[in-house]
Records
---
Amino acid sequence: MYDGWKIIIGIVIFLGLLTVPFFFAGEKATAKPDPKLDTPEIMKLPEAERKCVESKDYMKREHMKVLNDWRDWAVRDGNTIYTSAATGEQYDISLQNTCMKCHSNKKEFCDECHNYTAVNPYCWDCHIEPKEEEI
Ligand code: HEC
Ligand code: HEC
Ligand code: HEC
């Protein structure tokens, strides 16, 4: 066993290189959007009532449309109450005081998806972002 250590170092380097692609694959997996739902306002709700204004699936696909409708109803029609089609629950029509009250973690929620898909809603030019508590 003359140059045995060289072989061992060689094997170590070789194994290191082999695992490199797995490290990168792992990073990609964690970079997928993971919107957080654990805000104080949501955690305050009893577990069975931790719901959005409509079903999660619907909100995922249609929240932009919901917001557009809310704006039109509020600004054009002066309608300030929204009745959920899913639950019959009533909500004040307000981006800041309703959506962002529950989803007060804009960075870990809205931005989490929007950054991933490179959408940048211009709403915050006028509407005030929720103040986020430093954790
Ligand atoms: C009463 C608190 C509450 C309000 C108000 C609320 N949400 Fe939600 N939202 C939730 C909860 C809780 C969930 C997760 C629902 C579930 O898991 O079934 C959710 C889910 C969502 C999702 C899907 C997230 C995902 O991971 O796919 C989107 C998008 C969303 N909300 C946007 C909005 C918008 C936009 C508004 C205002 C129009 C709003 N929410 C109002 C509590 C709320
Ligand atoms: C589950 C991921 C996800 C979450 C959470 C989410 N969004 Fe979105 N949002 C998207 C996607 C994807 C689009 C782009 C959809 C498209 O272009 O068809 C979008 C588009 C929008 C648009 C339309 C923007 C445009 O330029 O067309 C608005 C407004 C919006 N989101 C508001 C919000 C707000 C406010 C929140 C937080 C309360 C939120 N979204 C949370 C995924 C998400
Ligand atoms: C140029 C400024 C401006 C921009 C940009 C803007 N809004 Fe508004 N929005 C307003 C004003 C002003 C009102 C009326 C406020 C009131 O009635 O108290 C309003 C009202 C609303 C309302 C209903 C009432 C409320 O208090 O929430 C919703 C919902 C809404 N906007 C959503 C959006 C969304 C979603 C976007 C981004 C896609 C957006 N707005 C971008 C100025 C703006």
---
Amino acid sequence: MSIRTSLALALLLLGGAGVVHSQERMAGYLREEYSCIMCHTDKRSAFLEGVHAERGIVCVDCHGGDAAAFEREGAHARGFRGRLSKPAAVTLCLSCHSDIARMRPFGIAPVTREEFVTSRHGQRLLAGGDTAAPSCGDCHGSHAIFPRDDGRSPVNPAQVPSTCARCHADPGRMPQGLPTNQFEEWRASAHGVALLERHNSRAASCASCHGSHTALPPGVAEVANVCGKCHRLERDAYFGGVHGRLAEGVRSVMCIACHSNHGTEAPPVDGIRVLCARCHAPNSAPELAGHQLQEELLRAERAYAEASAAIGQLVRAGERTRDEEVRLLTLNTYLHELRVVAHTLDAEPIGELARRVESISREIRERAEVVAEERWERKLLIIPLWLGVLAGVALAARKRRILIRGAPENPEETGSGKGSGP
Ligand code: HEC
Ligand code: HEC
Ligand code: HEC
Ligand code: HEC
Ligand code: HEC
Ligand code: HEC
Ligand code: HEC
Ligand code: HEC
Ligand code: HEC
């Protein structure tokens, strides 16, 4: 079997790839007698799929060599670079990707050497020569590479955490002393649950907070802005309040002091006072402010629950509840606002919102009470009616007895009979 026919056979055996354009490509490479994938069969998929294959970027563009030679010696010649080391791969990928003019037609943001070099990964790999740190291919793959929106890409938002965890959850790959629990904590957090279980792709994954190519832990001064990219209202409230106005050096109370960075959750409402007491002395003004906030939030939550229950009663009584439902929506909006404004720690707006929540709740409950009273009144009105019916029944029964005996009973007769006996 000639090399040419075996190549044709090999390409046919690629099978599955029945897409028209890849068949055309195969035919093209057949003409060019492309040798690399004859021997490197595990790289065939990369030859056919992925963004680079689509743009005709193939083996020799990255590895050099002669694709028209069918012996190893010949193929591995002509500027053959062999396997690229991790730092060499960075240089290779950047040779195209840092070139703005080259990337612009594809609408891809250029990746600059500077941004990668300033990341902890880049510092470790390029300056420190530490090959435990990732090169481009560790996060993207080196062969079949897909855009981030493609589910097969390891940097697809839903995949990013497990891509990072391949190293960051593996103590063998991490330097001594660096924790390896970020993935576990994140997965159980509000963000992990929203992304993995509720498929909310707007939730924060590792790269949302660390950046993809600039991966560094956000500095203390940056945290509020990192979180604030997505939680803008909370950030604004926070910077308008006592903690946010603290001078930069003193400002240790960032979002993560109360919410944690990886195990991010809203603190339980009945634990707010305890939370404040982590930093503030018992019965100090801030600790008491925390107690007050906790009480306002608990009352507001109770007011919401009671209003919903009242609407349930109205529905069961067969009443129309359109107005009440609209009011409940308004109440819920205020409750959300309250949770945001809580970040100012300013008693006045917090108290004002809490009062609004309670007043709407009261209106809804009052309507339910009025309806319940009216129902009672109606029940009371029915009582005379029932008495009448009962009387009627009694009368009818009496009549019936008389009819059965055929004659009216005569109490006087029996009475006199008894009396006259002796
Ligand atoms: C006749 C079979 C054959 C052909 C054709 C061939 N290779 Fe190889 N290649 C091999 C074998 C066998 C090895 C592993 C042994 C070695 O390192 O030489 C290898 C190794 C490699 C490596 C890894 C080198 C390393 O240092 O670990 C790269 C990269 C590579 N080939 C790329 C190519 C490219 C690109 C082409 C096409 C221009 C090509 N090969 C064509 C057989 C082939
Ligand atoms: C976009 C650039 C690029 C293209 C195109 C490319 N490679 Fe690679 N290849 C790399 C890099 C970077 C590495 C080293 C990192 C690694 O091992 O993942 C590598 C590693 C290899 C290796 C050695 C490690 C291994 O996985 O076996 C082989 C063999 C290889 N490539 C063959 C090929 C063949 C055959 C093609 C064409 C189908 C090809 N490559 C296309 C970038 C590329
Ligand atoms: C020869 C130039 C060239 C080299 C070398 C190269 N790329 Fe690309 N890359 C491109 C072009 C062109 C595109 C755009 C393809 C498209 O959008 O259709 C692209 C697209 C991508 C994309 C998808 C971006 C997106 O969102 O669509 C990723 C990821 C990527 N390359 C990573 C890499 C990595 C990692 C390496 C090194 C292993 C590398 N590239 C090497 C030219 C190159
Ligand atoms: C630590 C993992 C990691 C490393 C290392 C890495 N990337 Fe990325 N890269 C990502 C993530 C995550 C995204 C997606 C970012 C997003 O969702 O906005 C991405 C996105 C991209 C994109 C697509 C940008 C776009 O607009 O669609 C390109 C191109 C790219 N990276 C190239 C590279 C190159 C070149 C290197 C090496 C210098 C590299 N990456 C190193 C994780 C990494
Ligand atoms: C190939 C393995 C690997 C992958 C994949 C990887 N990292 Fe890393 N990462 C490292 C190593 C090694 C270090 C260096 C640790 C050190 O010395 O501080 C590091 C350091 C970091 C640091 C700095 C930690 C510190 O305080 O020193 C952050 C943040 C980080 N990585 C985030 C990420 C994110 C986010 C991803 C996924 C997008 C990711 N990494 C993917 C290996 C990896
Ligand atoms: C909501 C934002 C956020 C998300 C999501 C996030 N991180 Fe972090 N991460 C941070 C912050 C902030 C720090 C710095 C904490 C500090 O300085 O106390 C940090 C610190 C780190 C560190 C340094 C060591 C440590 O544990 O303190 C590593 C490594 C790291 N993150 C990796 C990851 C990985 C991997 C993921 C995804 C599984 C991830 N992070 C998700 C915000 C985030
Ligand atoms: C990329 C956007 C993004 C970033 C960055 C981000 N978050 Fe989130 N966060 C979300 C989304 C989306 C949710 C889920 C909302 C839902 O569906 O419950 C969420 C949920 C939360 C929750 C739970 C809210 C609740 O109602 O229980 C808290 C608390 C939170 N984030 C705090 C933070 C903190 C603190 C940071 C910074 C360290 C941060 N987030 C960074 C998008 C983000
Ligand atoms: C001093 C502690 C503290 C700090 C600092 C803090 N928060 Fe909060 N956060 C809370 C409390 C308390 C709640 C309300 C809990 C509840 O109602 O369930 C909350 C609630 C939230 C929620 C959920 C809101 C909702 O509508 O359910 C988000 C999101 C949030 N915070 C983000 C942030 C961000 C972003 C920052 C930094 C800019 C931040 N927090 C700083 C204590 C704090
Ligand atoms: C991570 C530590 C930390 C937590 C948790 C914390 N604070 Fe603070 N707080 C500080 C620091 C530091 C200051 C500035 C120094 C000072 O006045 O004690 C401050 C200042 C304040 C002030 C201004 C005090 C003044 O004298 O002007 C108030 C009010 C306050 N905090 C309320 C709260 C409330 C309410 C909570 C709980 C919801 C809380 N703090 C949780 C650290 C914290």
---
Amino acid sequence: MIDPRQRTSRPRAMIACALVAVLAVAALGVAEAQQNRAAQQIKYRQAAYTVLGTQFGIMGAMAQGRAPWDAKAFATAAERAAFIATVVPDTFPAGSESGAPTKAKPEIWRNEAEIGRMMTDLQSKTAALATAAKGGNVDAAKAALGAAGQTCKACHDKYKLD
Ligand code: HEC
């Protein structure tokens, strides 16, 4: 004899099982989407810094005599650096601390005030660099490059993994 309760409980158990399976798959999907999103944000951050670093590489080579001085190319690089400096503060959204290889230290997300000051410093020094570069005085441009470079170092020393 089949217990009538069993007849109803078996389909119910099956439905419950199926529901758990569907929810588990959905949760996996959400976790994966979040991971993809974080990986995308980290890639964006590193790309922005790569563009910034490339401009400094171009200017640094001229300042150190490894490349011939080209006032126009220097001024273009300075202007691009100043522009990218307005982008980088937006590349640290919450949730982008992990999810792909990153050299950003987790302390960044706990010290927003100091990071904000460092970003402001980066922006004002790269803006001053762009102005100096346009002025055409080589020594002034080199000095402004050094000052702007200090803002990179200050943050890297404290908040970037080697
Ligand atoms: C307020 C902090 C801060 C400032 C200012 C800053 N950086 Fe960085 N930089 C970082 C962090 C954090 C990373 C690591 C990013 C990651 O791996 O997710 C980084 C990474 C980089 C990278 C490596 C990008 C890659 O390929 O992964 C370069 C190049 C770079 N920075 C150049 C510069 C230059 C040049 C300046 C100054 C003009 C500068 N940064 C200013 C925090 C800063």
